[in-house]
Amino acid sequence: MRILCKGCEALGEATIRAGCNAFFGYPITPQTELVAYLSKKMPEYNRLIIQAESEVSAINMVYGAAAAGFRVMTSTASPGMSLKAEGISYIIGSELPCVIVNVCRVGPGLGGIQPSQQDYFFMTKGLGHGGGRAIVLAPNSVQEIYNLTMESFYLADKYRNPVIIFLDGTLGQVMESLEIEDEYDGEVYTLTDIINSKPWSSNGKLHRRNRNIIKSLNLDNNDLRNHMSDLNNKYLKIRENEVKYEKINLDKKVDIIMVCFGMISRTCEKAAEELKKENIEVGIIRPITLWPFPHEAIRDMSENTKYGFLCIEMNFGQMVEDVILSSNGSNKVYSYAEVSGDIIDYESVIKYVKDIIKGEVNEYKV
Fold first, then answer.
1. pLDDT (tens digit, 9 = 90+) per residue, 336-357?
2. Given this model, what pLDDT does residue 340 score?
3. Which of 198, 317, 334, 366 is the most buried (most CB within 10 A)?
């Protein structure tokens, strides 16, 4: 069936249908609608939802529920992610699956409540201490929010690792049509399911000879070395198997390739359509996983563009550094950034592309 809903509401519905047992969160703009939706719907399916006293409390509740083997989620906006960072590092170090939502707003500090993509570095490179990694999914529509949320719980369980759903504030608030299954029977993981599918979970001795112990502390150097090696091998496996991206109009050589993610990718698609009317061919690479990043896809396209790559982001230029790394100097890379909280419009993108072609824009330098 087809319904009309906000991005945060689609995320909430997918959370329920993915079999999430528990949600722990704290209201903060622009993701409060998700908390409100789940506070109404979770009890209908006998699921647990707790509004914690802070983001710090919420992420530690996630740690406990994930350690017991439950499917669990928390959500916040940018300042709240800073508060959750220590707990996320412990969750990564303990190899626990969970889903974390960040509906990004402009910052730093309290900043504003307008949409932004300024947490790109935070989500992909600086996620707590200790070099931990999480899969970062960046949908660009209400439908894709729903689809990727469903997938995120599967990925978290598959790799025993957090998965982050990264939205800008616009996507969380925008209202669009959503296609979902007509029926949902409320199926959820039971304790028996957890014991069978997650033998590592810590939920009492039960039938086991020994108790399971979940921890991130390793004081023995050999144990620590082995643990870090296991984590690194897991990250390598994720990089090998879970890269997701979309290519548009790249079956031929183009004048310029835009690299963009989230809501801004739709602005870029409109700009590309308009530029085509003026015989300017534009291709698009849209990373869907921001980590692992589609380095090879960009590297393979470096010879497929006359003027190079244009990264369009709602920050001062962060993903552009990954694109420069991917292209490895084989073509020019430009950056168009907006940090005021205003959404980039397609007319501005068109003008910037034309300025690049006229030689009036300098390459981005790191």
1. 998 877 889 999 999 999 999 9
2. 77
3. 334
> How would you class 12 by CB atoms within 10 Å of its CB: exposed for 0-12, middle for 13-18, buried for 19 or more?
buried
d(CA 275, CA 353): 9
Give Cα 64 to chain centroid, integer Å. Answer: 22
Total number of domains in the chain:
2
Residues 267 and 186 grouped into a single domain: no
Q: What is the domain extent for residue 184?
A: 2-192
The contacts of residue 342 (CB under 8 Å, 6+ apart) are 114
Is 218 a domain residue?
A: no
Q: Which of 204, 223, 216 is nearest to 162 (CA)?
A: 216
pTM summary value: 0.95
Spatial neighbors of 226 by CB under 8 A, at least 6 apart, are none
Residue of 69, 64, 61, 66 whose CA lies nearest to 201: 69
CA 124, CA 23: separation in Å to the nearest integer? Answer: 23
Q: Which residues pair with 50 in a beta bridge?
A: 24
Give CA–CA dist 328/249, Å, rounded: 22
Q: Which residues of 68-81 are buried (b: 16+ CB within 10 A; e: fewer)?
A: bbbbbbbbbbbbbb
Calpha distance 14→10 (Å, rounded)? 6
Torsion of CA 224, 229, 230, 231, to 10 degrees: 90
Same domain, 74 and 188: yes
Q: Evaluate if residue 208 carries a pLDDT over 70.
A: no
Q: Where do runs of H (alpha helix) occur along the chain?
A: 7-17, 32-41, 55-67, 78-93, 120-124, 142-159, 169-173, 191-197, 221-241, 264-276, 295-300, 319-327, 346-357
- 33 and 171 both lie in a single domain: yes
Q: What is the DSSP letter of 305?
A: B
Residues 13 and 91 in one domain: yes
Q: Which residue is listed with tokens 């590092």?
A: 89
pLDDT at residue 210, rounded to an integer: 76
CA distance 286 to 283: 10
- Residue where one domain finishes, among candidates 192, 226, 257: 192
- The domain that holds 35 is classified in CATH as 3.40.50.970
Count of beta carbons in the 10 Å neighbourhood of residue 275:
21
